[in-house]
Design a protein that fits this description.
The protein has 279 residues and is α/β, with parallel strands linked by helices. It has two domains: 220 residues, Rossmann fold (3-Layer(aba) Sandwich), CATH 3.40.50.300; 57 residues, no CATH class. β4 and β5 form a beta hairpin.
Length: 279
Amino acid sequence: MIELKNISKGFENVQVINDVSSVMKPGQCNLIIGSSGSGKTVLMKCMVGLFLPDAGEVLYDGHDFIKMNDEEKKEIRTQIGMLFQGSALFDSLTVEQNVMFPLEMFTKWNYKKKLERVNEVLERVELKGTNKKFPSEVSGGMKKRVGIARAVVLNPKYLFCDEPNSGLDPLTSMIIDKLIMEITKEFKITTIVNTHDMNSVMEMGDSILYMHQGEKEWEGNNKEIIFSKNDKLNDFIFASEFLKDAKDMRMLEETGKIPNERDMSELTHKDADPLIDPD
Ligand SMILES: Nc1ncnc2c1ncn2[C@@H]1O[C@H](COP(=O)(O)OP(=O)(O)OP(=O)(O)O)[C@@H](O)[C@H]1O
Ligand SMILES: [Mg+2]
């Protein structure tokens, strides 16, 4: 479990993250959503120690990462897997060498043992037999899967994915989401996913933290988001008419009630519990 307590971070007097608190639980996908520039990546970087927050605590199973000594931080880092925005594979290394990289960094295993583990994770992400290919020789979706294989090769307790779907078509995006969800549940990983992909929100949103201009604006899950009356969240997530209709249809399914005009106007105001039929 990861707990964020009152995290703030600014750059040269510009406040980018403002007093954000949240809890990210194991065995589930914890989403951080929000429009471009809302602070998702900065918050994630504060969590993994790439940025030092100006204030607040990042607790890994109760231990404050910021106050840890170098040895303790290194230990936590071996438990963290990270899928960077854009995969960030080493172009000059093969798929096998990319996935093996964390094992070279953090273990003293011999080559045979490392290769066994690499093949195990490549098989898990359905990339068996691609060992000798270079990143330039595989598709965007395959690159993401290599990135996921590399992120989980050390068997992490915590997995961070920054925009895992960026640049992928909707079907490939769903395959990547499904893979992240399966791995999360299978190995009880505390997974944090930054996204602004609507499909991901509805499919993976066990827990959703919505950021707006560096602040936590809303928190809930993919069931509750359908009933949210938070203006900013609704404008962000159900931006198109098509998605507004889809939201109404889902509400109808869940409540058996067609939202009337009053409900519709309330929909755009504040948070609220699911609509309850007054009768
Ligand atoms: N190293 C930095 N120095 C100064 N400002 C920064 C730095 N990194 C990020 N910022 C600023 O912090 C704000 C939040 O950026 P961030 O990258 O977290 O947004 P984001 O929500 O991840 O957006 P996107 O969806 O486009 O990835 C932006 O205004 C950005 O310019
Ligand atoms: Mg980002």
